[in-house]
Amino acid sequence: MDSETSVRRRIAEGDTWSADAGTQAQSDLGTRDEPRARGVQTTSEEVQEDRTRRLRDRLGLVPREGQSKVRDEAAEAFMVIFETFLQRFEGEQGSDEWGARVYMRQLAQLRSDEGATVYVDFGHVMAHDERAAQALVENYLRLEPYMARAAARARTKAGGGSGDVTVSVHGLPAQQRIRELRSDRIGQLSGVSGTVTRTSEVRPELVSGVFRCAECAAEVGPVEQQFQYTEPGVCDNPVCQNRTVWTLVVERSKFADWQRIRVQESASEIPAGSMPRTLDVIVRGDLVERVKPGDRAQFTGSLVAIPDGGAGLAPAVAAQTGRGDARELA
């Protein structure tokens, strides 16, 4: 009898627990006539986020903010050396607060001059650090963005304002003949001279673009332009994966002035019985409208391959350099 009473008591307690649990479940999940509790409501954004998370887990992807970019440690080390060079190199003594620090003076004057270019003598870089100068010649296109970052940081320290800075290198000890330029010079710093025969109109060029996905409206970028109109390879949204349909976000993209200059080799460099060779030079920013047809000029920049009307890749010098690089010669 006692055992029967004990069993009945346990069953009753179990019924009570089950009823309480059922009440709790109904209060959280709701019934057909009552909505669910506010704390467990699921919005469409939460559903989308959950789908994205499960897809990332399935594919082994890492969220964009958690991705680690590949670092070019050698280029970053060069950037530190170049920034130190800009801040400390001393040339002619000046009467202002910068004394003999010629490049800090240049950077400080960018605010009043409304410019964005610092002109660097290659001989000064060689005197400061010979190995860095050699690396600059051999890896110009690779190091150019890091030089610009170093110059922008030095500009801020000099009180020249903020913003992008173009580094214009001039004064290379050796000049190349136009007909001597070959594919092994692509990406390296080279200097050429000749007579300007034609100049184009100054046009805007897309430097880096931010794009909006036409499928999910996500913004991707900035995408650096590789001498032609370059769109993102794929949408950052792992659920979307759009690869083809994009809209350029003009107000968030960067543009620069651009001009094409045709240069013909000097008469003294033309072999007997040969026709003169020509080279297209691309100048940007502060260097546009610096020369006109008939001028003899020197250009310093890097040999690149760019599309030419869809007919293939044509060689051209992307002259990112300035003072003395596009000057008239005696």
Q: What's the N-to-C terminus distance? A: 125 Å
- Strand arrangement within the widest β-sheet reads 3-7-8-10-9
Tally of helical segments: 7
What is the H/E order?
HHHHEHHHEEEEEEEEE
Unreliable segments (pLDDT under 50, ≥5 consecutive)?
A: 10-41, 59-68, 309-330
- The total strand number stands at 10
What portion of residues belong to β-strands? 15-25%
Q: What class, by secondary structure content?
A: alpha+beta
Mean pLDDT: 75
Mind summarizing the main beta sheet? Answer: 5 strands, mixed, barrel
Shape: globular
Approximate helicity band: 25-40%
Rg, please? 32 Å
Describe it.
- The strands form 2 sheets. A 5-stranded mixed β-barrel has the order 3-7-8-10-9. A two-stranded parallel sheet has the order 1-2.
- About 30% of the residues lie in helices and about 25% in strands.
- The protein is globular, with a radius of gyration of 32 Å.
- Helix 3 (about 75-90) crosses helix 7 (about 140-160), helix 4 packs across helix 7 and helix 5 crosses helix 6 (about 130-140).
- It has helices spanning about 1-30, 45-60, 75-90, 100-115, 120-130, 130-140, 140-160, and strands spanning about 115-120, 165-170, 190-200, 205-215, 220-225, 245-250, 255-265, 280-285, 295-305, 315-320.
- The chain is α+β, with helices and mostly antiparallel strands.
- The protein starts with a helix and ends in an 11-residue tail after the last strand.
- Residues about 10-40, about 60-70 and about 310-330 have low confidence and may be disordered.
